[in-house]
Amino acid sequence: MTKDFDTDPAHEAGLAALRLILGNLLLRLGGQDAEGGVNARKLAGHGASMGVSVDDDAGNVLFRLEMRDGPMSPPARLNAPTAPGDHIIPVIENADGTTAFGIDMRDGSLYPQPPDRREGTTIEFVDPDNLGDAWNAIQSRDEFGPVIRYLSRQWRETWGYEKRGAITLAQTYDPALGVVAFGGGSAGVVRPIAEDFRYHLIDETLRSPEDGEAASALAAAFLEGEYAARRALPTVVALTRVVASTVEADALPGSAPRLALRDRVAAARQALVPWGKELFVDRISLSLLEGAPQTLRATADLHYAAVANSLRQEIAEAAGQAPLPVVVVSQSAGTRTDGTSEVILAEGELDWAHWSLGLVVATPRYPFPLQQGTAATLTPEAAMQVSELEALAANERLAGRDWYGPSLGAKASRAGRVITVPFTAMSALVLRDPDRHGFCVDGVTNGAVIASVEVRGSDALLTMTADPTGTLTVRYAFGETGDRGDGFPCNRGSVTDSWSRPSLTVTGTTLYRHARAGRVSVF
């Protein structure tokens, strides 16, 4: 140790403190003894006090610290106690003379120390009291209280979990997705959800819904698809508002069902705050006018458009998001005995008529069986398949891709005995069951009937028993009456496009893009 300035108690105290700091530093870096490697020198210039350096044997400077007596510009203004005590040697002072940075003479530590060093560690290893194995279980505390984070194989495979109080959720990315269902149709059918995704799928209370209703089924189908694709699973909030036998007033802004659903969305948004997540509702399943089958086609079309537009804005506002969700509709099928409601026709064209409103028609419901003893209620398995198709349709629309089942063109044409019915389709048509083709020709005045049906590309060819006369109209899966006794709606048909895939939610079944029910004039 050398020095070239006069003996001064302050200098001696500062130098002793710096030697402690540098000694600690060298010990941490390599276990060296700092005694012979610390050199203190008087600095030249205005306000200079002293400098301390650590040199190697060759005189190379490894570390250098300078302290000056002159005023700092600008003055330091750090948060520090105003009276740290006589054992603190000031190195930097605030403008009011209090110590901003200094050295504790008792052990050579810096002043002030970080909070975790002054107050001890803020985490501890704990038992998360979970339902399986656990490791790296660490408890910490934030402004919302204690939280335990750990790894476990308690569900399917290894996941990270977060536990707050009695609620445990999988650790997922921000935001949480929201899935909402509103109305009648099959919304209230309790579906057989094979995997409830209990740590990913929640309601506004952050607990598993366990209701099997439309939003829960739609969310579970979405999660099954993400899991099968090996993509990261999000937290999904599923909220269903069942309105049986819906009429127009049930779905208007300010109605009790709408307000109740909005409040649940707002509650879910607030409940997610401690978990560091925002809520983003990306899809709404909508089914209207179940209780008003006499509604005219044009009226039903306008009602759906108005409700879809206002509801998606209302839900987005409650969730605190700017983008609006897509609205998914599954075309109704009428009942077991009556398939003449024009609401069916309106629903089948919603995406074509109102593309800008985010509407997508996932599937018609006529191919699916009904519960015994009911007029129009799908079986639980059928309702689950509809939900899976809705999940696929929403995914495609949100990804900027098309999704639509074959849809009747603007008009059909006749040449002799053959009526050509064009479809707009995503791939070539397939007639799955010629005996249940679903076509009917109205307005025939000479008794001609359909002899056979075949499909070529995107056209269906109806061969009549004779050249038909009259003002002709072709119906597909629409306008039928009478119970066929086979457990299906009276409207039926078997035209699909070429797409199909095994269901991920109902074992042993295959999903198809069925042609939508419709009606078209023949020219």
Layout of secondary structure:
Layout: H1 9-30, E1 38-41, E2 48-55, E3 61-68, E4 88-93, E5 99-104, E6 110-111, H2 115-119, E7 124-125, E8 135-142, E9 145-155, E10 157-164, E11 167-170, E12 176-183, E13 201-202, H3 214-228, E14 236-242, H4 256-271, E15 279-287, H5 297-319, E16 326-331, H6 343-347, H7 350-353, E17 359-364, H8 380-398, E18 407-408, E19 413-415, E20 418-424, E21 430-431, E22 439-442, E23 450-456, E24 459-464, E25 473-476, E26 495-502, E27 510-514, E28 518-521
Helix pairs in contact: 3-8, 4-5
Characterization of this structure:
By secondary structure, the chain is of the alpha+beta class. It has 3 domains: 124-168, no CATH class; 169-399, SGNH hydrolase (Rossmann fold), CATH 3.40.50.1110; 407-521, Immunoglobulin-like. The protein has 8 helices and 28 strands. The strands form 7 sheets. A 6-stranded parallel beta sheet has the order 13-14-12-15-16-17, sandwiched between helices. It has a 5-stranded antiparallel beta sheet with strand order 7-8-9-10-11, with no helix packed on it. A hairpin with a 2-residue loop joins strand 19 and strand 20. The chain is elongated and about 125 Å long. The termini are far apart. The model is unreliable at 1-5, 28-38, 40-45, 69-84 and 116-121 (pLDDT under 50).
